[in-house]
């Protein structure tokens, strides 16, 4: 027989129940209020667009002020961490070995760390690789494809002119047209504000693998809008058609197999004569190989964490390192202190960086030794095994370091890739030594001084001062004309 509750116990139970019901009611009311406010924000939009792509980002400001104001903050370049920052840092000055590694390719002229999306167009116009000097010299080296990820004017132009036509014309053709930096319509359908990647190369790559981007979940879309640009790619054929080499998979070996199957090479190394594969920035691929990607964490979860403002929960569009706001990114799941989490990241980066430094020195030396062997009379049959190893080694090194944040996204995979790269570079040097011995040279190969960017330029025959002068001429004469033409055609809103 159940024991009867005492009078005070009954009242205590009753009172506790009332408090619980009251608190639950407050919670439900808060949730309903938040949903209502979010619904009203969308339903009461003052600017309902009829087109999927609206290139002028300022047109979204009135209806989405929180997102717009945080998007403006991508102009900020003050963040720094142990290995990265939001500043424009000259990587070739930091790592002159890269000049040697990229000899014969425009990356050896200028390569800087990425800044926020606000600066995408400014940095595109101001980098020597896109052909800034070539425009003034009348021998432009790059196609329109190079603009692809630099702003919502690109999908607008693709809709107006055709995808293939956009890619194949000279880079400067779209100079007066691409005026709005990476923004709203790059990731959202302007009609509904649903997440929708605007670049066709992503849809085409998925289709070739039997997949449909349009059927991806909302959580997957929070990564795919990033994956349309932060991914490995190449320019296919004479039309320089942007293509993602994902047909065989996303790993470094899968993509290498794809490139080998079509006989693709980005450039021939000016010193060693190696047919080089140049990795771009396979951020999406690398992230899928790490623990966060494997657990379904999206890019936006960490780089664009949610913010609550009154009754509204919105996504922070100040896209930057999670280390800048550990409380809203890492600590959403992890309960350790900010300092502990920060040091966890640094430890992984330090370990990857240690082997990276070894690889870059070993690879640069191997390219120089290969040139020395050619100069001593080495034959193609003798050097082919060397070239194969250097191609594999440099592809792996580049794949591991070109991806933004790779040492954090997948430190184990990056360490594996770099270890293989180091082994292949060392094996290439061993074979070079044997080839040289056949040709009567058994001493240590004399290496030129490439301890600074300027000295490395001398080694590969690049006149850095002249290229910088050509760039200044381009920025002072051509770019202002582009801006004036764009103003006449109302291509952007001055703020």
Structure notes:
With 495 residues, the protein is mainly alpha-helical. Helices cover 52% and strands 4% of the residues. It has 21 helices and 6 strands. It has helices at residues 7-43, 65-72, 91-94, 97-101, 120-125, 132-137, 153-161, 163-168, 184-187, 200-208, 218-227, 252-261, 283-288, 291-294, 299-303, 338-375, 380-402, 406-409, 411-438, 453-460, 464-488, and strands at 234-236, 241-243, 267-268, 275-276, 306-309, 312-315. The strands form 3 sheets. Strands 1-2 form a two-stranded antiparallel sheet. Strands 3-4 form a two-stranded antiparallel ribbon. A two-stranded antiparallel sheet has the order 5-6. A hairpin with a 4-residue loop joins strand 1 (234-236) and strand 2 (241-243). The protein is globular. The model is unreliable at 33-37 (pLDDT under 50).
List the keywords.
single chain, mainly alpha, 495 residues, two-stranded antiparallel sheet, globular, two-stranded antiparallel ribbon, 21 helices
Q: β content, as a range?
A: under 5%
The structural class is mainly alpha
The count of strands amounts to 6
Low-confidence residue ranges: 33-37
- Write down the overall geometry: globular
Determine Rg (CA atoms, Å): 27 Å
Side by side, the strands of the main sheet go 1-2
Largest sheet: 2 strands, antiparallel
Order of helices and strands: HHHHHHHHHHHEEHEEHHHEEHHHHHH
How many DSSP helices? 21
Distance between the termini: 79 Å
User: Helix fraction?
Assistant: 40-55%
- Mean pLDDT, to the nearest integer, reads 91
Oligomer: single chain
